[in-house]
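FORM 7B: Structural annotation worksheet

SECTION A. Query
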Amino acid sequence: MNVPFDSTPCLKAYVAARLRRLRAMDPTAEQQRLLLGLLRHAEATRFGRDHGFAGIRSVADFQRAVPLRRYEALHADYVAAALPVLDGVLWPGRTPYLALSSGTTSGTTKRIPVTREMVRANRGAALDTLAWHLAAHPRARPFGGLSFMLGGSTDLKQVAPGVREGDLSGIAAHEVPGALRRWSWPPEELALLADWDAKLARLAAEAPVREIRMVSGTPSWLLLLFERLAARHGMPPLPALELLIHGGVAFAPYRERLAPFLPAGCATREVYPASEGFVAIADRGDGEGLRLNLDRGCFFEFVPVEDLDAATPTRHWAATIETGVEYAVVVSSCAGLFGYVLGDTVRFVDRAPPRLLVTGRTSWTLSAFGEHLAGEEIEAAIMAAAQAVGLAVAEYMVGPEFHGSLGRHRWCVEAAGAVPPDAAPRLAAALDAALRAENDDYAAHRDGAQMAVPEVLILPPGAFAAWMRAQGKLGGQHKVPRVIADPARFAAAAAALSAAPPPASRG
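SECTION B. Predicted structure
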């Protein structure tokens, strides 16, 4: 496959103007302007009429008129009776796409509305990702080769006239402008494959490895791809790669394991996309925060996690956010979602412009016994403990169980390589120490003999992949649930993980 020509110079002309606009943008004014525009556009919809959009003139008016809703409430109140045809329910006209998104802790498949306006907004955010890359690497040539998006199956099912549903990556692939398809890989035949193992084998065999300049995907699945590519093509498997775009899960556990596969000078850039909208992009280095997308179709609110279920939760936005506070993300968008609780938690490191770190999920809080562990604390503890023991962790999951009369946490940990002697008890002790240091409530419950020391189950490489395959959730945008707070669901998952044979190696 040959790339017709290097279109990077055209991109750079756009980037220069876009960067000037982004750097001059007033976050408060931009977000307020965007919200009021969304309300005017949707005021005649069923949702807009029910909430008096026509009379809203400010952010404060909006927050008084529109309560916060999680997916389940929105689905029951507005979506369920109309599916699959949403005509003027949340957004004017017929919503053309439903993105299937499995809840990582609830196991529930969600159908998230995606409008053409949202498709355009997401495409603009993708261009902003390249803009920040070129700002940091002005000699880069991202369109001097192919862009490889490692997503799920791009096969979309038509469920009603003018309505398709499927993976968000399939929607994105379906909407790629014809003029850009020549710079995209894989071709439709490969992208449509639903069998993840067969797809990986063919991607590794057929990839034009010397022409790929950019690759994007979830780190866990990218690692599997690079291992397959390296086995077939040697190291580095993509010698012309200059940009790896990653998102969906924390990158830190994968950084060292991915590094050997990347050629010298290859940059990495984190993004925060969701089925509900493109939230933020790294505009600086790793770990320095992701810049909130202020003008890409979404108005954002941020609710302190402890207030989320209050009768009148405190709702911050770009004008009132503070650094260092754990917030739940709420979105109102050009897909017709208003006051929608996204399910993620973030912490701001800057206010002007707003930059955030993704800290976990609202459902990642583990407090079966009053220990009140946040997702960020759980992630930090497993990384510190694994380093102390000398164990490379590929995946993990934690949940609560009873040990006699005491509660405890059970960790299912997949090793990425050799397992040190006595790794399980040593890792349990290191996790206990790390969590004591991180969280006073956990320490108090351990010291007060209300909780037993954690238990660790070490799993062989491939155990989580086998478990995900058994659920039909292998690859693409599916992610391993880090925390399952319900004891019965966790016990079933842990038992299945223990019994699942690792996947057989395939070409």
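SECTION C. Observations
The chain has 16 helices and 18 strands. Residues 116-136 form the longest helix (21 residues).

SECTION D. Sign-off
Analyst initials: ____
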